[in-house]
Write a structure and sequence with these properties.
The protein is of the alpha/beta class. The protein is 49% helix and 14% strand. A 9-stranded mixed β-sheet has the order 5-8-9-2-1-10-11-15-16. The chain has a 6-stranded parallel β-sheet with strand order 19-18-17-20-21-22, with helices on both faces.
Amino acid sequence: MSQPTPLPAAPATPATREACTGLAAQVEHHLLHTMATAPAAASPIDLLGAVSQAVRGELSRRWVQGDAADRAAQARRVVYLSMEFLIGRSLGNALDALGLGAAAGNSVAGHAHTLEEIEGQERDAALGNGGLGRLAACFLDAMATRGLPSFGYGIRYEFGMFAQSIAGGRQIEHPDPWLEDGTPWEFPRPDVVHPVRFGGWVEHPESPDVPPIWRHAGTVQAKAYDMVVPGYGTERVSTLRLWKAVAPAHIDLHAFNSGDYARAAEFKNAFENISWVLYPNDSTPAGRELRLKQEYFFTSASIQDVLARHLAEHGRLTNLADKVAIHLNDTHPAIGVAELLRLLVDEHGFAWTPAWRITQRVFSYTNHTLMPEALETWPVSLFQQVLPRHLEIIFRINHELMVEAQAARPGDLDFMRRLSLIDESGERRVRMAHLAVAGSHQVNGVSALHSKLLVQTIFADFALLWPERFGNVTNGVTPRRWLAQANRPLSALIDQRIGTGWRRDLAQLAQLGPLADEATFRAEFMAAKQANKRRLARLIANSTGTAVDPDSLFDVQVKRFHEYKRQLLNLLHVVTRYRAILAQPQGPDGQGWQPRTVIFAGKAASGYAMAKQIIRLIHDVGRVVNHDARIGDRLKLVFVPNYGVSLAEVIMPGADLSQQISTAGTEASGTGNMKLALNGALTIGTDDGANIEIRQAVGDDNIFIFGRRASEVTAIRAAGYQPMRLYESLPQLKAVLDAIASGAFSPDEPGRYRGLVDALLWGGDHYLLLADYEDYLATQLQVDALYRDPQAWARKAIANVAAMGSFSADRAIGEYARRIWQVAPGT
């Protein structure tokens, strides 16, 4: 992987110094004039509002100044379309970026509060769910820090996916109304409104010179709300523009006046529910329709906004591809390919061929999954109902694609079927990933293995047709939030030893490598880790009621729950370990058992029954293990509810071991693996996704790799994998599965997990948990042995931090800017 291009060190600007000097006065001003409270009586919530407003003022200045400069320069802009932007809390990030952390701390200390306390009052922005959204947030931070003129576009969800609680071991989903008390971080733009239309039919005039007319059945207004993402050590900011769905000004007054309030509001609700909830449950026809409407709603509004801005600056659209790069973050905004064509042809008078050339030059696409079942498709019938004009456009794109495929491989009908934008097997469905590939000039995966497998598997035919379109950009994370802010003890130590430049040039962490041989530095490094573990132990006690020992090995798996991520394999190890401690209290080698705290966190999609069942099993196993006096503190199992960015900022710095154990060939990249390694956790994982590049960076001796490689997984499945043979030949595995299936951890309902075990034994064990079980257990014993040697562990943990330079979002954005978007910093 290429190393990041170093960003120049950025001394504080005069504007920053002035803002720092005057921050206390601004806070007092906003307490009185914005929060309407006497400064002497200010509560933590009042102080949160006042400090945020003071910071907002500085961000506003930078936003206005930067936008004016971009307009004057007629800059080429990056437009990043994503269904998710998991930005977390904004105050701490903004204070760090502006260099105002110390000033803010002093200001709130004058009111007898700490800055940490004030920052803790802020709610996480519920604009995302997992790695896709967190990556998008990291990228906006990096775009601003690298000086790219950039817009992120998404939806202003009033409710997040859901807030998670646990009752009786079950995941309970609650609304997540993050906006109920408002947020100081958004800037409403009442003058920026775009109509988004749905349904109806298409009329085709007799004259070929007159474009088709879409007689839509309904219109919703998209209203803009901006959030500003500051760059670190620079005046540049990125804009995150979010769309709220608003019904046209209409109400059934007759129904209202007659007392039928529900019917009077029905029209309004039918439109405005588009921006209510992130990822509505799409297991019902109504849910699927809403999901498609959401995707089109934000994509259409965003592209209309891009065209309006471009016309205001340039007066014509013929040069659109020279001035705008639109990036599709996965397939959710892929309908944008058809939407840009529709706008150019139907509303701006372009002929089809030049419109198609512009579209392909404008768009690029990042794929985030290798699993065919996870690639987004929509029934043609639903498209016909919701977006009839777009379906026609997709059919025409497909016709031209089939002509090109026929010319490339005459008579190869299977080749044409595989390439087609329409899946004709069974119910006819539109393949959104195929649309994104056809409509983009560049397509990339997010790790070296993922990008290689893309062109060998799901996009192999497209790669034969257009090999020049495919490449790789390995993911990265922002060191500002994920080390400087999340891990104050370690970042302070790094600053002391090598300076502060690593925040903008993460490759500087390599200077820590030689310090691993210095006893004093190892002691200071592990002291920082221990402080983070104590903080995490407090969080666990407060959120779960379980006391855990910070001196134990903190074994962490935090991510979305999915069978391919194999949380169940981790749990099988926990049960195996529990049974082994009971059978051999002195340990397998007579040296005792290394105390271990196994920590899970993550949400399961509301309609994903198997993932929710695994969460329940974790709790059932934990209830037994944690209360078994024979075990004591040698093993604890906890599940931290309602995982999100703010929780991750506490969990990741406190982790000793990072579980990255997906079935090889299924994880596109991962970014949690990077964040955990950056914070000094050692990885136990498969050779999958970015684990491979982490292994190459840190060295084979500083990571625990186990299990089948991707090629071996393919070979095992092709040979006819039989998990029952492993069950019958491995007594330890058989005993563990029998205990789970027979109700050892669910005595109130002995058959509760019979189906889960049957899915492994009789359902084919699709993700090869049992095939990797033995190797996983053996590798966990290696982890125990190393952790018993604190000095050796510290050396390897330091080596991990020192090797993380290439996993910066700044490096990734530099590659996107240079190779895909053709945008230079500051232009």
